[in-house]
Amino acid sequence: MSFVANALQASVSTRAPRMKENGQLPSNRKPDTTAPEFIGNILTFFAALFAVLGRDTISGGLVGLSVSYALSVTQTLNWLVRMTSDVETNIVAVERIKEYTETTQEAEWEIPEKKPPEYWPEHGVVEFNKYSTRYREGLDLVVKDIDCKISGGEKIGIVGRTGAGKSSLTLALFRIIEAASGNITIDKIDISKIGLHDVRRRLTIIPQDPVLFSGTLRMNLDPFNLYDDEKVWSALEHSHLKDFVSGLNAGLQHEVSEGGENLSVGQRQLVCLARALLRKTRVLVLDEATAAVDLETDDLIQQTIRREFADCTVITIAHRLNTIMDSSRVLVLDKGEIREFESPENLLKDKKSIFYSMAKDAGLV
Fold first, then answer.
1. CATH of residue 169
2. 313-317 and 283-287: which strand pairing?
3. Could you write out the DSSP letters of every residue in 116-137?
4. Which residues of the chain carry a pLDDT beneath 50?
5. Model-level pTM greater than 0.70?
6. How many angstroms separate the Cα of 358 from the Cα of each of 160, 231, 351?
7. How many domains does the chain have?
8. H/E element holding 273?
9. Are both 148 and 26 inside the same structural domain?
């Protein structure tokens, strides 16, 4: 009966490498040796059986040789199973290397012959011209035929249900994902024609999840030492962090842990705001920047942005509708397409509009 039990268990175990669709063996799965031991036991059993049946014709030396070889088969089969398992596990590294070598590289970091002027963008006029994009080849479009113009200095709120394509527009502005069709121009310059570095360093974003690095507070505010301490302190004052930093023993040299773990979520977001104030480009993107902070910090950030970026183009992806009620216009996305693009006042007058229904759900009307 033990042979039957082992055989049944082995039949399940030998199918394990094929259980994953991609054929990869989990790295923490130990090779099963039940089947080799079962086969070895069968060979040993038959070697002993034939020795007994042919005891009159087979010499003792030949019997001993056959049984000892049969016993060694188990060890050999176990070794073979372990080697096969190791190959299956280690081949994952080869697959990863192959994947990296076949991954499409980003565009050129800098294109010397197509560098924009140093003062670009001067006005902050952003135009989407029949713009569509997808996250990678073969997937559905996440943004479809976006065609709109944002004038310099306008405050635009972008709203929509989950999956409407709001954050995809942000990724498109910074060319994290490239266009499937159409283009985006900023002050009449097609951003797909210039280097990535020129695009990304001329725009500023305050993300939903603040990014801080292990190092000093000053390094997090000004990683490339482009500004003097006076400007850094001015940015901290405008972002309501001056009193906090002044109270630290090390001041600007205060050590920030990885990810800013020794700062509160609100303080981390204000550090990102200070970083944006320090750079102060003509186009500012807020990607649900206040979604994870309390209402008091939210008010501080909104007041600072209204005051310090009054002449800049501000594109706000809104989680809380009240943060974009004073926007110049509101762009409503649904399934990657523009459904409405009007001032909040006009949209609220139309009780059939998507924006009105969202405002009603939020308790604003």
1. 3.40.50.300
2. parallel
3. PPTT-SSS--EEEEEEEE-SST
4. 1-27
5. yes
6. 8, 41, 11
7. 2
8. helix 265-279
9. no
